[in-house]
């Protein structure tokens, strides 16, 4: 039923909960798994110049090793969890607006299930959903499984 599963991650604990559920499903359906970290260029614009933001958007991180390191750390974590269970995870990172990049990636790779957290690194917990998840739900016709951090011990 599910052939290609996308796990967007911001490296947060809630995203990690989503990883476990996604891998359970992947195992069951023998699905291909992708993980994607998006360097948020809207947030980056506050601290970086427009030239740097443009470079991030086109995937050339150059000397911005810190951004790249954070991205790699997040996706490597997902890949490591996969490896422990014998599941290959393809790691990707991109620059842009997270929800746009996630929705585009799902289209481009013909993903049939996106599994993501209800919250991430920065959110206000009063909100039912973080803004990235809410916007992904609004911008894709693909199936999305939202793993709620409060439902898990
Ligand atoms: P907000 O960002 O609105 O302040 P938040 O950080 O709590 O709130 P979201 O950012 O919506 O919530 O995060 C929810 C889920 O979205 C995460 O668990 C993760 O799966 C995904 N996600 C969030 N940011 C990114 C990102 N930059 N790249 C990839 N996936 C992301
Ligand atoms: Mn967030």
TrEMBL record:
This is Universal stress protein. Residues 1-147 form the UspA domain. CDD domains: USP-like. It comes from Halorussus aquaticus. The lineage of its organism: Archaea, Methanobacteriati, Methanobacteriota, Stenosarchaea group, Halobacteria. Pfam families: Usp. InterPro entries: Rossmann-like_a/b/a_fold, Universal_stress_UspA, UspA. Belongs to the universal stress protein A family.
């Amino acid at each position: 039923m599910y052939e290609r599963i996308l796990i967007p991650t911001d490296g947060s604990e809630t995203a990690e909960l989503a990883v476990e559920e996604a891998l359970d499903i992947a195992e069951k359906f023998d699905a291909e798994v992708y993980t994607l970290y998006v360097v948020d260029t809207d947030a980056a614009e506050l601290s970086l110049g427009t030239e740097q933001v443009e470079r991030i958007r086109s995937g050339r991180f150059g000397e911005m090793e810190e951004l790249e390191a954070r991205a790699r750390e997040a996706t490597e974590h997902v890949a490591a969890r996969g490896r422990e269970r014998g599941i290959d995870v393809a790691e990707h990172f991109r620059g842009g607006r997270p929800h746009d990049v996630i929705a585009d990636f799902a289209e481009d790779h013909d993903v049939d299930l996106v599994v993501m957290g209800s919250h991430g690194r920065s959110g206000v917990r009063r909100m039912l959903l973080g803004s990235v998840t809410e916007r992904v739900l609004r911008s894709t016709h693909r199936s999305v499984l939202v793993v709620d951090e409060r439902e898990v011990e």
